[in-house]
Amino acid sequence: MDKLLHDFALLLPGFMTTVWLTVLTLVMGLPLAVVIAVGLRSRSRWLTIPLIVVIEVIRGMPALVTLYFVYYGLPAADVVLNDTLSICAAFGLTFVAYTAPFLSAAIASVPRQHIEAGDALGLSRWTVTTRIVLPQAIRASLPPLISWTVILFQGTALASVVGASDLFARATSLGAQQFAYTYYIVLAAVLYAGLSIPFLALAARVQRRRGGRGLRDAMRSRVRPSKAAPA
């Protein structure tokens, strides 16, 4: 048991790096996802079509390709970021590409009457969007947002290919030093699961408490655009 605890302690720095990469990517990516989601509800095709094209291109690329493109491609274009920011920017792009569409659908699910009530009170469009539309949309999107955060957390293992000292990199390094790859990979898997499973359970609980209303309304809004909240 003492050896097991000692070995988990050896993985702890990598685990904390993985958590830090996840948190920093969320801080960078979630606000951008919200902005793009609002943009996707715009009536202007000059705005929505480029956004859709960019989203589909990013979604069509493996996350590893996006990581290589940002990590190695940006310096070639004289855009220099440190290693952590490059990794988080790449993961953030993938996160935004997958979360912005369902955030946009959640925005469309906000009842039109709520928006009209804000207009009737003389609230500005900015206030209506930030105080009425977005809070309801984010609440409706919580289960998939939590699920995608878990996917992001697990996906940070890709950062090891560009030299990040994350949990997976730490496990493989220790495995190579002690000729015990499987042992340390299993320990790393336990740490990944130890944080992932509670958050997935939280997402399921939130979804049950909402009775699936947010997702159903969001999906209905995709075929009834007339209920969309104006950008």
UniProtKB/TrEMBL annotation:
InterPro entries linked: AA_ABC_transptr_permease_3TM (IPR010065), ArtM/GltK/GlnP/TcyL/YhdX-like (IPR043429), MetI-like (IPR000515), MetI-like_sf (IPR035906)
Superkingdom of origin organism: Bacteria
Keyword Kinase: no
ABC transmembrane type-1 domain mapped to chain residues: 15-203
Topology of this chain in the membrane: Multi-pass membrane protein
Keywords in alphabetical order: Amino-acid transport, Cell membrane, Membrane, Transmembrane, Transmembrane helix, Transport
Transmembrane segments: 20-40, 47-72, 84-108, 145-169, 181-203
Subcellular location(s) per record: Cell membrane
Entry's family note: Belongs to the binding-protein-dependent transport system permease family.
Protein name: Amino acid ABC transporter permease
UniProt organism field: Streptomyces javensis
